[in-house]
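Example: N-acylglucosamine 2-epimerase.
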Amino acid sequence: MPSASQPSLNTLLTHFHSLIVPLWQGPGWNAELALPYEALDADHRPLPPQRYRAMACARQLYLFASLIGEPGAECAENRAAALFRSLQRHFHDAEHGGWFYSIDAAGKPLDKRKDLYTHAFIIFACAHYWAKVREPLVESVLNAALDVVAKRFATGDGLYDAVLERNWSSLNSGPLQNPLMHLAEGFLATLAVREDAITRDALLDLATSMQKRFIDRQTGVMMEKPLGAVDNWFEPGHQFEWFFLLESSDVLRGTPLHASLTRAFAYAELKGVDNVSGAVSGMLALDGSVRDATQRIWAQAEYLRALTLRPGSEAVLERQLLALQQHFLHEKGWNECLDARGEVSRRDMPSTTPYHLATCYQGLIRHLG
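Written out as structure tokens, the predicted fold is:
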């Protein structure tokens, strides 16, 4: 790591462990339901709860599972265990299998549909949690989630429907990029903790189909909807997120999809990143014109993490470390979104965001530390 970067990383890690994580152990925790509130305001008060999502529970399960065994994180194992129990107690559908999308403020099922995004995060979280605790029940939930994705969401061509009815009947959603990316992330987490030929084959089939159905041939860019869909776009943050997953995986490195996203990285950087401020734009048309200039903290984190795997990026990496620290992090937490001028446009702090910061910082530590 360049010598200048280590103090910057240490500052980010101190902020994360001393401020952000405790928010979700204290004011962000609904002890009655044993679930994180969906979001806190700028003064650490829970926003009035309208719902609780299984995906948010799973992301927080990942967060605390990742802290098990870390110095100063003695409470992480108990919190992860509580989140794992809540995932099953509140969201599991005993009648039809799988997990509900959300429950209401009183803990009753709200949106009973089954979506791939939620199930992908359950796979991801349970794989990480099982890696730490090796409890048979955790692996059985991981297996159940993998099984329901394979049997219910799969469309037979390597891809998966984005959302289905509670009873698994079709909603004609078709595949969408973002749930599929997180499914790939879940598959990778599973393969990191055990030998699993079925999951490995599913991952490779998914990569092949993404290359065929979602990749623009000229730029290598990963579109948000399948090629040919009306009103399509791409997000620079997702190019960087995909690049990291592909570049860091022994299974996926060297695939055609990896080659595409290596090209897409350069295009997304050229069109979607301000080379002075380091701001990452939200949405772009394929020609590179900006459709949404909102700067989101998750995209900043994904760009920073991806840079750790790009040779010759030391100066840009240093710039992005400082940009995250100066524009998005503050003494009360973080700014979720900035507008095109760099002004704060969202002051709430969602319970889902620490997942992005945790994966970013782990990438920085692993590849640079």
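The chain is about 50% helix and 10% strand.
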